[in-house]
Amino acid sequence: MGSAQSRRTKRNQRKNQKECTNSPETTPPQSSPHENLKQPINETTKNVTTTQCVSKKVETKPIVPVQEKPTAQVQEKPKTNPQKEETTKITQEKQKEQINTIQNDFNLYQKDGEIQPEGLAQMIEDLGINDIGSIKALWVAWKLGAKDYKINENGFRKGLESVHVSSLKEFKNCIPEDPLNDNLTGKRLFNYAFECNVEYRQKLMEKEDSILLLHQFFGENNEMVNKFITFLSLDSTKQLNRDEWQNLYDFITTIHLDFSNYDTTSDSAWPLLFDSFVSSFQN
């Protein structure tokens, strides 16, 4: 038995030795360093990381540049020019004197703040004009802005200033000997004469006044004027209105005696009265 047991013991040892030799030695698997990176991030870890990043963010405020206070500039006092100041002073005194002179001259003839017809007649006489119905007297009234033979202070002042004078004494020297020598002045006076010879709020001039003024402006020997007066004297011819009167000056000074340059077309700018006048002589 002993030897038999000994043989079994040896046989078991050889079997165990063979099993140990055939079984491979196992080693724990080593993880690759890249495998850790591929593992999913735990939500808790993610939140912690995010919180840490947010907590590290520093809120910054915009930097406002500091404005430098402007340095006060010391303004130099303008240099005075004694000569210029003296000239300015003299000019101002002269202007004041002129205003006073105009005021005094106006007050000589005014009544209730205006120069009335009686005062205008006296002033024209003092200016050396004997005939109040003359063209020279009409020029004075026109220049001083007379309306209904009345002159206010503003019109009086502007009239003197328009001829660069400051007194009636100086104004007297500005009155033209014959105002009609200048065609433009003559036309303005002709138009102004209508205003002076029409009653208040009236629109037509009396025939007698029209004839008198036509002779006064153009004389009694003007053929065109005499033809028109003949036509105007007809009972069928009405009194002249403002538009007809203002066109009459150009008609007399530009239209030929035979009416050859008178426009008879429908586009003519002449008032209808002149069409009738021309037709009456052509027929």
Biggest β-sheet strands, sense, barrel: 3 strands, antiparallel
* Total helical elements: 13
The chain-level mean pLDDT equals 80
Shape: flat
Low-confidence stretches: 20-29, 31-58
Q: Architecture of the domain at 181-282, CATH level 2?
A: Orthogonal Bundle
| Span between termini | 189 Å
CATH class of the domain at 181-282: Mainly Alpha
Order of helices and strands: HHHHEEHHEHHHEHHEHH
Supply the helix-strand structural class.
mainly alpha
Strand order of the largest sheet: 1-2-3
Number of DSSP E strands: 5
The amount of helix comes to 55-70%
* CATH level 4 superfamily of the domain at 181-282: Cullin, PONY binding domain
CATH topology of the domain at 181-282: Recoverin, domain 1
Portion in beta strands:
under 5%
Radius of gyration: 59 Å
Give a structural overview.
This protein is mainly alpha-helical and 283 residues long. Among the domains are: 98-177, Recoverin, domain 1; 181-282, Cullin, PONY binding domain (Recoverin, domain 1), CATH 1.10.238.200. It is 58% helix and 4% strand. The chain has 13 helices and five strands. The chain has helices at 2-22, 33-38, 43-56, 82-109, 117-126, 135-143, 153-162, 168-172, 183-196, 207-218, 223-232, 242-254, 272-282; strands at 110-111, 114-115, 151-152, 204-205, 240-241. Strands 1-2-3 form a three-stranded antiparallel beta sheet. The protein has a two-stranded antiparallel sheet with strand order 4-5. Helix 9 (183-196) runs antiparallel to helix 12 (242-254). The longest helix is centred in the middle third of the chain and has 28 residues, at 82-109. The radius of gyration is 59 Å and the shape is flat. The termini are far apart. Mean pLDDT is 80; it is low at 20-29 and 31-58.
